Amino acid sequence: MATLTKNDIKITRTETSKISSIDFNNLAFGQVFSDHMLTCDYKDGKWHKPEVVPYGPITLDPSSKIFHYGQSIFEGMKAYKDNNGDRFLFRPMDNVKRLNLSAKRLAIPELPEDYFMEGLKALLDVDQDWIPTNEGSSLYIRPYVFATGNGFHASPADAYKFIIATAPSGAYFSGKVNVLIEEQYSRSANGGVGFAKAGGNYAGQFYPTQLAKDKGYQQVIWTDDTTHEYIEEAGAMNVFVRINDTLLTSPVSDRILDGITRKSILQLAEAEGIKTEVRKVKVSELVEASKNGSLKEMFGAGTAAVISPISGFGFRGDDFEIPEQDQSFASQLKNRIVAIQTNKAEDPFGWRVKL
Amino acid sequence: MATLTKNDIKITRTETSKISSIDFNNLAFGQVFSDHMLTCDYKDGKWHKPEVVPYGPITLDPSSKIFHYGQSIFEGMKAYKDNNGDRFLFRPMDNVKRLNLSAKRLAIPELPEDYFMEGLKALLDVDQDWIPTNEGSSLYIRPYVFATGNGFHASPADAYKFIIATAPSGAYFSGKVNVLIEEQYSRSANGGVGFAKAGGNYAGQFYPTQLAKDKGYQQVIWTDDTTHEYIEEAGAMNVFVRINDTLLTSPVSDRILDGITRKSILQLAEAEGIKTEVRKVKVSELVEASKNGSLKEMFGAGTAAVISPISGFGFRGDDFEIPEQDQSFASQLKNRIVAIQTNKAEDPFGWRVKL
Questions:
Q1: Domains along chain B?
Q2: How far is B245 from A263, CA to CA, in rounded Å?
């Protein structure tokens, strides 16, 4: 099959742009949406050519399997614009490949990589004015696939829809976050779908997260569901811990998302001369390190939040504060990654993709 | 708040009934849908009155959280009609209560019980002609709730839709099923959402089930995700095992659905003088019992499949056949439960609800 290029993609433009109604200086996260979206249908056993169309409603039968059996996966990406107006993506092929890993686990047909990448490029050509240039803002990109096929039988759908929608966005969190280490509820099972960006992984976290919020925390740090002795991830972020001058993070597994920001940070830290260790981290080790003063930092890492410093953690009714660092790894690494993403620094890793 | 009754519910009838196009003698499971549905919206912090409307398309914004974060729950019920044309439900309040247990775990606002029950009654008045009377057929009822609120932030939606749709249906499985005992993939985590009827629980099973189908099995029997030593449930069914003359089934837990058919079978078996044990069942015990001839039967139990006899199981590359029984518990109990459901027998348990 010939490869699709962005110029092959049919574009239907909106008649009335919303862009003049958007306050780009006061953007929340993922609440206003650009004028267009990419849409692509799977039916009759294959993915049909993607098209760019005006952002608008989706109509489904009440028996569509998305409503019943949770077949949905997504990715999170960002587009950046520099002072010259050049536009950039960050490691986009990693998102393409991970979407297809998620697809396979959720019994969703894998998507041709060029449909995703060339479709995204065509969309970002049409909506290039929607990429914010303010510091800390970017165009959040949400590629997702969900079951549209009909019927109440609990089996994979015979039709799916792939969409890329975009939202000019500000910060995901404002300020540091205080986290609760969770021992009762779990995010994912051994042999489950925790490594995938599956919709159901998120819904299952909302209730325990709400209980944590009611106690004054903003996020939950999940532990393994078997022993609850090891920290895993924070649901929307991977977790890093600095003990003395070593940066630790859990290995990825079938329970833990292989975060693109996570692996970028590991490479960046190495390049910056920061010692890293990828190994399982015990909750008891965190508590001990907090007590003896060797716990210097914790932070979350993910596309939406980039690097999100953690101010402290709760565990079994006790709160452990993490003191402010003058020279924090979180700031150092966040500055580096954002500079690369936004074309303010060289990119020795080949991560940045110019559009 | 005054209780809603079915007569308070606004009804908008379809202008063109599809019923004459349906072949009630050849019904698949959940593939044709009755003329109407009940619909009920949660917004502005409350559930609004349900209405009966023509079965028809649902329109959503591309950022609706159902597409992204898997907030969806459902129930499965059936309506039966006897030879006098009287209509019956089976333990419907158990579905109402379980829907709200699922809702709580998935951070979905709980539904007023009368909105569900009185709404269902109103719907089944309007669509009473859709309840099949053929042996083995029934009107499958699908109550479900999903997130309609918009936005890419990974947090609970601010709007939801509750729908009851119905589908005149034949058998879920045709004939006995051959199952695979799964040791690599898992259905649910300790502290997870396995006990809830959450959409995501089903999507996660499709791929391992497909792998099992490729090997010649129709269903997977899930084991606990920590040790894989104990059988749990079959995803769409709870599992019963007969060893000699004792009927065993796993206790429900946060990983195992509290099936209404399951608990009805336990009560029925007791009334029939069948010895039951609710305890964890080891895979090794099944293998041993199969080898020494004490494994007499296995069957699945659930609303859709009622009681579904299992012809054998695969485990670690070996196949264990379960011989045909002249006097099977599966047949005896299925006949009893169906007779009660369809008003062909007395109902000493008070399970049947006449509409």
A1: 6-169 (3.30.470.10), 177-340 (3.20.10.10)
A2: 56
- Coil vs helix vs strand at B337: helix
Helix (H, G, I), strand (E, B) or coil at A183: coil
Question: Is B66 in Cβ contact with A207 (below 8 Å)?
Answer: no
Amino acid at A31: Q
Please judge whether B199 and A67 are an interchain contact, meaning their C-beta atoms are less than 8 angstroms apart. yes
Q: How confident is the model at residue B25 (pLDDT cuts 50, 70, 90)?
A: very high
Q: In sequence order, what are the beta bridge partners of A246?
A: A243, A275
Please give the mean pLDDT across all residues of chain B.
96
3-state secondary structure of B283: helix
Q: Does B339 contact chain A (CB < 8 Å)?
A: no
Report the alpha-carbon angle A149-A154-A158, nearest 5.
25
ipTM above 0.90, yes or no: yes
CB B143 within 8 A of CB B77: yes
A-chain CB neighbours of B31 within 8 Å are: 150-153
Between β-strands A51-54 and A10-11, what pairing exists: parallel, antiparallel or unpaired? parallel
Q: Can you tell me the distance from the alpha carbon of A151 to that of B123, in angstroms, rounded to the nearest whole number?
A: 20
pLDDT digits (tens, 9 = 90+) for A143-188: 999 999 999 999 999 999 999 999 999 988 778 899 999 999 999 9
Start-end of H helices in A85-130: 92-105, 113-126
Q: What angle do CA A347, A352, A355 make, to 5 degrees?
A: 135
Residue B17 one-letter amino acid: S
Q: Are the beta carbons of A67 and B63 separated by less than 8 Å?
A: no
DSSP string spanning B4-51? P-GGGSEE---SS--GGG--TTS--SS-S--SEEEEEEEETTEEPPPE
Give, in order, the Cα–Cα distances in Å from B102 to each of A62, A68, B197, B282. Answer: 20, 13, 6, 28
pLDDT at A2 over 80: no
- Per-residue pLDDT tens digits for A279-306: 999 999 999 999 999 999 999 999 988 9
Residue type, B46: K
B151 touching A (Cβ < 8 Å): yes
Q: DSSP assignment of B139-171, as one string?
A: EEEEEEEEE--B-SSSS--S-EEEEEEEEEE--
Q: Which helix (H) or strand (E) holds B120?
A: helix B113-126
d(Cα B222, Cα B189) in Å, to the nearest integer?
Answer: 12
